[in-house]
């Protein structure tokens, strides 16, 4: 019981400073729009935005579900590709020397510029959208995992080689467990990027989703609804980050129990 109370207090001590800051900023925003009589199409007040959320709730829910589905599929594939690339390059040093610079170059091409080409090559279906999200997600995962694998304790590595452990045993028993914190750091970055990747894909070609909804409202100068779309994107990114953070705590705790 005392442990639960302590954890609740710790959680509250972490959450209340940013909560107060957000409420303070919203208050200033509301006061400024009323005091300076700013037009709604330029900068709507938080109250106007909240009212519009209630009006558009059914449409917003439909578009949000579409974005969540696209994000989930793209994030899963992108993370899997990143993990696979990291494992292959770590296992084959020559291949890493040859392809690592290409990984860096792949991130210098803006996704928003590459997306139209993908639509031309693969049409307006699900595939080009998944490729966009994969391109956004795989890089931080691959780089973080390779960095974590390089940080393996050299003494333990030498010991396992000395007792005759195979490369697979060394990877599963030593390198991978010690790389978990780095891997999850990359996955958390990819989780937040995946939402933006889905939105960019919906900008290019889609008939549903938050990105599609945002483009429609921008064309109609409905700034209040654009703010709603931005808020949903932020909440989805925070939710993805929180889910991965919870999984990280569980996996790291489980791994420590296994080691002990």
UniProtKB/TrEMBL annotation:
GO terms for biological process: transmembrane transport. It comes from the Bacteria. PROSITE patterns: ABC_TM1 (PS50928). GO terms for cellular component: plasma membrane. InterPro entries: MetI-like (IPR000515), MetI-like_sf (IPR035906). Its main location: membrane. Keywords: Cell membrane, Membrane, Transmembrane, Transmembrane helix, Transport. Residues 64-245 form the ABC transmembrane type-1 domain. It is a multi-pass membrane protein. The chain crosses the membrane at residues 70-90, 102-124, 130-149, 183-206, 226-247. Pfam families: BPD_transp_1. It is found in: Cell membrane. Belongs to the binding-protein-dependent transport system permease family. This is Nitrate ABC transporter permease. It comes from Paenibacillus glacialis.
